[in-house]
Batch of 2 targets.
Target 1
Amino acid sequence: MGLKASRIRVPGLAGHDDPAAAALCTRAAAGDQGAWDEVVERYAPMVWSICTRFRLSDRDLEDVAQNVWLLLVDQLGKLPEPAALAAWLAATTRRECLRVATASRGLEPLEPDARVTGEEVIMAERNAALRAALAELPASCQPLMDMLVSDPPYSYAQISTALGIPVECIGPRRARCLERIRESSALLGLADIGGNRPGGDPGA
Amino acid sequence: MLEDWDDEQLLAALGEAIKARAAVPSWFVQTGKNAYAWHNIDAELAQLTYDSRTDADAMAVARSETASILALTFTSAHLSIELEVADGSLLGQVVPPQAGTLETHTKAGITTSSADEAGFFTVRPIPPGPFLLRFGTTDGAYVMTGWITL
């Protein structure tokens, strides 16, 4: 039932290290609850997203969440590759989901394709880094970026009214804020990760 | 990677990242944060090595019989904790047989009982929600199970 690490790696991710994950693990292992909370904040979206594929009840979701994070607490300071934390968490989550799905339904649950989980790991690391980069933005960028990435999107007219910025200034300010995101230290570890472009390639 | 993205692609990626985080219920995140309470607990975490609900042979027997026994085994390097549900109680045995203390941890708190010389213990009633058992040997070593939901 265990998922071999090699199966959840995909070309381009193999050998990739996430220094942020390793640093957080080290601090959490040393007793830093704040670092642990950050680990959970970073990777809970990935754990959740994997869980949703198994159509679990809330009771089973709680069972998975409790055991996945308990297993990680137990492994803090012992993980062979703390930089590959996302891959470890993905494999552990998948295994726990299969366990509770089988225990509850007594059936062979639908087993999601392992390749999807590999993509999940890349996306999770990318998303965590992007959220960290957003959080690092200065106050002059934060409200503008919040409105620009919201779903459904706000129009420039709405943004202008809400933030008191002339419409013609939004474009240049947007460009400056995105530049800050690109230069953010939170994204440094991402430079060598492969992965698909978001929103598809318009030229394809 | 990022150098290849234009502003629209970067914005779309940021939007996806925010959406993925917003989709997670807050209780799910809190459950993860709460797990850190176990960081300083002195106990070896035993692995679930048998669950009659997921064991193919046990499931085949259960299908052919009217009454099926729910049984779980947690194994650590030093001992195993075997559990069985019977008549609304949880019967357990520590293997190899030995006396010790037994804590039942639930969201509501901790209940303490003990295992006899033969390693037998009973948890009654069965906790309605998730619970976890922590066994203390007479040598002062501790072994705990993962979270159990019955």
Target 2
Amino acid sequence: MVPLSWYLTLSAALFSIGLFGVLARRNAVAILLGIELMLNAVNINLVAFWRYGDPAMITGQVFAIIVFAVAAAEVAVGLALIISVYRNRNTVIANDIDMLKW
Amino acid sequence: MTIEMLIWLIPLPPLLAFFLIILFTNKNKALSHWVAVGAAALSWLGSMIVFMRALKVEHLSQHPFHSSINWLPTADTWFKIGILIDPVGAATLFFVAWTIFMIFVYSVGYQNFGQPEGDHDIKGLPPHGATVIDPNGHKHKVPSVEPMYSRFFAFLGLFACGMYTLVVSDNLLTMFIGWEIMGLCSYLLIGFWYGKESARNAAIKAFMTTRIGDVFMLLGIAFLYTATGTLSFRTIFSEEVLKALATTPAFFGLSTAGAIGLLLFIGTVGKSAQWPLHVWLPDAMEGPTPVSAMIHAATMVSAGVYAVIRMFPLITADFSGHGLTPTMSIIAFIGAFTALFAATIAVAQNDIKRVLAYSTISQLGYMIAALGIGAYVAGAFHLVTHAFFKALLFLGSGSVIHGMEHGVLHTGDHNIDPQDMFNMGGLRRKMPITFWTFLIGGFALSGFPILTAGFWSKDEILADAFGHGHLVVFIVLALAALLTAFYTMRQISLTFLGEPRSKAAEHAQETPWTMTVPLIILAVFAISYGWVGIPEHFPIIGGLIPNWFHEFVGSTLAEIPEGVGFNIVPLITSLCVALGGLFLGWLVYHNVKTGAIDPFKKPLGPIHTLLKKKYYFDEIYDFLFVKPAYWIAETLVSKWMDNGVIDGILHGIAWAGSHLGTLLRNYIDAPVVNGFGDLVGEGTKKIGASIRPIQSGRIQNYMLTSLVVLIVVGGLLYYLLVLA
């Protein structure tokens, strides 16, 4: 069996790629993509720990499914926001959307 | 109505008149004088009823009209005030009522009632006269009515109230209240023409001078109250109280009675213008003439002598009959000295009223001297007769001045002083009634033998002084009497005899009936009142009329004083000085020509100047008291104490406060408190400004920051919690 550390390493790599995408990409949609990557890295973790921890329980799977649901909802809200911003400001570049200050 | 109730009411009508006039009727001159004269008439009527009833009571001194009420609670007892009419009170009430009533009537004429309003009269100045055009088209200058006519009668009313209160009081306190009311009124009335500076000064002078005496009198009253616990005459004059007072020593070797008597006497010195507090009285002539008569004859100055007469039992409590007590010696000395001293001044005065003023001082000195040597009845007798003839003389002089003013207005020569006797002369033909009444008054004052009242009273004083062996007093008083007769005749001669010495005197005119009728009535008293006091042992006419006054008034004392036996020496002296003085006066002055100087000026030389200047008493007092008082007030108190010290302290405090404030502000408030506040504010601003770029608004920056912080904090926690 593949050792747990491999899953964790994969998950960490995936999370880091996602994080880099969130921090470095200029396009808001791409940032959203990055977030998805990070969420799924978490899912890998959850499932891996479940499998190597206590397989009798299904908690890991349930959590993963909940994360899917939340991620789906989040994407829906996130995309809606992006569309709304685009309509108002005519851009999806994250650096241009600097309204979060006084 | 009981007689006591009536006595209570006597002082009331003039007081009511005062309030009525000042509150309601002051716009209406006629109504005002009717109110005032009516009130005076009511009081006069009441006084006459009381006097008549008093005559009918046998042994009035044992059973005087007396009633009192509780007034002021003093611990567990009451201070009582009330009324008392004993023989002295009744005799005083008689002359006071008459003179006051006459003066009220006289004032109507004197203040020119019925004359037109003046052309340019100002309130506070004597009326200047009015121009009228007669049917033929000729312009005449006539006297004009006093602008403050009603006010004058209001003051007179208050004055009368004060005097009646004083006379009917049964205790020293209400007596003192009446005394002070008169003090106030004399101030108001002397300063009646307040537009004249001299009148203002005279008013202040009179008030201040009498105040000195009053303070001592108040001290005497307080002393008496402490010593006996009562101020009621009847209680004080009971034998045991007097004995206790006479035997308790006080200070300076005086008994308590003597000390109190002396203090009360100083009040009299002020009020009755005795040396050394005499200076106010001549200046008081600035007031309208009825005021002079009111103050100098009927009321205020008599009040002083009346007070001594009232307190006589107290003053003589330790008098055994041989050798005067210290208090009595002082009283006798001051009286006799004043009598002579004032008479000498009167000789050299040219102002008709001033002569009378000094004559009043002199005559009051007579009474005081008489009381000082224990001649109680003689003093009281002279008080009464003097009140009549001096009121007569003052009113007569007012009538003369009035006539002269008429002449001045007629001729239009306003440089003529209508009061200067050297501008008069020959007025006997112009003003016959005034002349004859003035002559009677003057003869009474000089003590013209047998006929006049002044002779009997003055003779009695001289006889008393001689009979009881007070030779010095006798000689001094006899000299004063000589001078009195002399200056009186000088006055009469200069005023009425000879030829007119000015145009104004040529055109003088007799005064209206409201002025002459009081003169006539007073003249009757100036003659006839003496007849009630003719000594029994007087040759020929003695005993024809019983010596009523002596028995009546003398009975006030515990033991009726023995009338002195007849002695030819004082009688001869009295006759000589009176007739001699009159003759001398006539001889020197009966034919003074126009523009002549006083015939006595040359032979007397500097002495005449000394007399004319009243022994420089005004100047001495000015130097000794007035100037230092001004210096104390202006320089010491105002400039140094008030402006210098007190204001200095205040300014210093203000300066120090201001500077302390500046210091606090510059070194504490601004740098420390403000600095701290500013530092916090500015610091916050600076910090804000410096970390402001962190908030870029870019979500990715925030996240990066969060990541860095997370890593750092996480690493730190890991290091601290796990590794360490």
